[in-house]
Amino acid sequence: MSSGTASLIGFRPEVRTSYSKPSMVAGQIVDGEWRPIEYQNRVSSEGVPDGYFDKKLSENGLMGRTQAETIRWWFLSIAESERALGALCLETRLQEYKLTTTYKVEPLDAKFGLDSRGRALVESTETEE
């Protein structure tokens, strides 16, 4: 019947430190390598809700730009609350991803036929003579 592809742009906030030693920030170890900011998304008044088009992104570990920016700044605010000067060595970025999905719609055998009175049609396997 039909087929096609759809693409979405998603983001993942990442963090690293320019400091020479790894440190614990907001419950995760931060070192000199870019690593995703650990955050378990939850839809509530306390969390970051998915955007309208973001369900497919979140199923693949990504989020919309607004949500990713929110997580980035949330992480930095936690870092500042934990230690005022240590947060100065943190670097954050949004890693961009292109999510491409393909789909194909094709008919299968028809099922559950009804006549005009709502009775099930009996499919005959015999040929009429």
Main beta sheet, described? 3 strands, antiparallel
The main sheet orders its strands as 4-1-5
- How many H/I helical runs? 2
Oligomer: single chain
The count of DSSP E runs of length 2 or more, i.e. the number of strands, is 5
**Beta-strand percentage range:** 25-35%
Average of pLDDT: 84
Give start-end ranges of low-pLDDT stretches: none
Tell me the overall shape. Answer: elongated
Q: Summarize the amount of helix as a percent range.
A: 10-25%
- Measured between the Cα atoms of the first and last residue, the distance is 34 Å
Q: List the helices and strands in order.
A: EEEEHHE
Structural class: alpha+beta
The radius of gyration computed from the alpha-carbon positions, rounded to a whole number of angstroms, is: 25 Å
Number of domains: 1
Characterization of this structure:
With 129 residues, the chain is of the alpha+beta class. The chain is 18% helix and 31% strand. It has two helices and five strands. It has a three-stranded antiparallel sheet, covered by helices on one side. The chain has a two-stranded antiparallel ribbon with strand order 2-3. Strand 2 (23-25) and strand 3 form a beta hairpin. The longest helix is centred in the middle third of the chain and has 18 residues, at 65-82. The protein is elongated, with a radius of gyration of 25 Å.
Describe the structure using short key phrases.
129 residues; 2 helices; 3-stranded antiparallel sheet; two-stranded antiparallel ribbon; alpha+beta
Short description:
The chain is about 20% helix and about 30% strand. It is of the alpha+beta class.
